[in-house]
């Protein structure tokens, strides 16, 4: 199912098509798909879309005494955040996306509390 509107590269459905017909989705994750750990997320928007970019930061390995490590960090300037995935979401789908995130965050927090652990905010 597409979130594009007629005229945006997708032909309009026939006028006699009953739009109440739901076709089930088969959720498929390809075997070779690599999962990465997102340490940072950037959300941007325009009038027509939201772009959610996921970044992974690999901390540098810095060895030595405390003074040597401090000096190395001061000389570093920055650490690279590598974009590992980007998704674009139509504004009309954002409320469902946010609700799915919120629902799963609440379930996660509940599970963590049941285990007697502290919940990260």
Terminal Cα span:
35 Å
Shape assignment: elongated
Fraction in beta strands: 15-25%
In round numbers, the mean pLDDT is 85
Low-pLDDT runs of 5+ residues are 1-8
Explain how this protein is built.
- The chain has helices at residues 66-76, 94-114; strands at 40-45, 50-57, 81-89.
- Mean pLDDT is 85; it is low at 1-8.
- A 3-stranded antiparallel sheet has the order 1-2-3, with no helix packed on it.
- The chain has 121 residues and is of the alpha+beta class.
- The protein has a domain at 40-114.
- A hairpin with a 4-residue loop joins strand 1 and strand 2 (50-57).
Q: Could you name the key traits of this structure?
A:
single chain; alpha+beta; 3-stranded antiparallel sheet; 26% helix
What are the SSEs and their pairings?
Blueprint: E1 40-45, E2 50-57, H1 66-76, E3 81-89, H2 94-114
Antiparallel strand pairs: 1-2, 2-3
Put the structure in a nutshell.
The protein is of the alpha+beta class and 121 residues long.
């Amino acid at each position: 199912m597409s979130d594009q509107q007629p005229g945006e590269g997708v032909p309009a459905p026939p006028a006699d098509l009953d739009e109440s017909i739901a076709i089930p989705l088969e959720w498929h994750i390809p075997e070779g798909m690599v999962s990465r750990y997102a340490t940072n997320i950037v959300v941007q928007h325009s009038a027509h879309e939201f772009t959610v970019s996921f970044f992974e930061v690999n901390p540098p390995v810095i060895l030595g005494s405390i003074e040597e490590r401090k000096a190395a960090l001061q000389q570093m300037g920055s650490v690279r955040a590598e974009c590992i995935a980007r998704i674009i979401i139509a504004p009309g789908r954002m409320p469902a996306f946010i609700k799915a995130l919120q629902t799963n965050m609440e379930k996660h927090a509940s599970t963590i509390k049941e285990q007697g652990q502290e919940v990260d905010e």
